[in-house]
Amino acid sequence: MSRFIYMFGHIDFHTFGLALLLTLFAGLSTGIGALMAFMTRADNKRMLSWALGLSAGVMVYISFMEMLPEAISDLQSIYSDKAGSWYGLLAFFAGIGFIALIDWIIPESSNPHETHVNEKEDYGNGSGKHQLKRQGFLLALAIGIHNFPEGMATFVSALDGWDIALPIVFAIAVHNIPEGVAISVPIYHATGKRSKAIWFSLLSGLAEPVGALIGGLVLLSFWTSAINGIVLAAVAGIMVYISFDELLPSAHSYGHHHAAIGGVVLGFAIMAVSLQIF
Length: 278
Prior knowledge:
It contains ten helices and no strands. It is mostly helical.
């Protein structure tokens, strides 16, 4: 049985509020990325590869070793062992399919998984600035769409327990930082306004708490043990997809393969120890 089951009319609003605050923190990390783009030189590619690998390691380990097993256990407590396992696995792959569908709907030129800012591009001419401005706005919109289900995933994990929530919040926050950089750089070079670049980065990140709030209010009206298990399994699928489709390719794209793998292994180790302790 899950550690935290909600029934309409018996909602722990304190936990609800904390879960929403954690999701807000994770989402607004895009603003940290925007600030870093202006305050530092983005030449420490090794550290960025390591951090993204660490996030992927945390998310993959906790998805397979904690969230999915707990989801299946919840479902097996309601249905038979075999049926509960099947429902959990179906929900896991449904989560993967859901986030993959979002990837497929968004045009490749605007997809945050496909778009890369070319730091050597000529920003001087008018047409180039117009193109950069459009690219930045589309990227902010695309990342906002991606952040919506991520916010729901963070929120649900926070409702289910802090030992699951905190690592996921950390992982989502770290992987939102490069997204903030990706949004802010083209908008800043196109408009010359840092405030506008930071604002659009923050706006895309706000899609996470909005997704959490909307999804939470809808789900809490009919939350049961079965829904809890299904949602947990789907969230695990979303996390695994994000790790393999976004975090690891981004980590390797900076050219420091061993730093990325080292981050993954360290993420595994941190979660293995923390789950044993807590």
